[in-house]
Amino acid sequence: MMYNMARTQLADLLKGIAVVLMIQVHIIEKFAVVSIYESNIGKLLLFLGGPPVAPIFMVVMGFYLATSKKSPKQLMFRGFLTFLAGMLLNILINLNLFISINKGIYLINPLPYLFGVDILQFAGLSICLITIIKPLIDKSLFIAVGLIVVIAMSGQILQEHVPKNDFLKYLSAFFYGSTEFSYFPLLPWFAYPLLGVVFYKGNKLLQPSILNNKKVHVLISLFFGLFIIVSWQYGVSNSSNLPTYYHQSFQFMMWVIVFVFGYGFLINSADILFGKTQLLLCLKWLGKNVTVIYFVQWIIVGNLTTEIYRTVSSPIALIIYFIIILLLSSAFTFILNKIKVNKQTSQSY
Question: What is the rounded CA–CA span in Å between residue 337 and residue 323?
Answer without folding.
Answer: 21
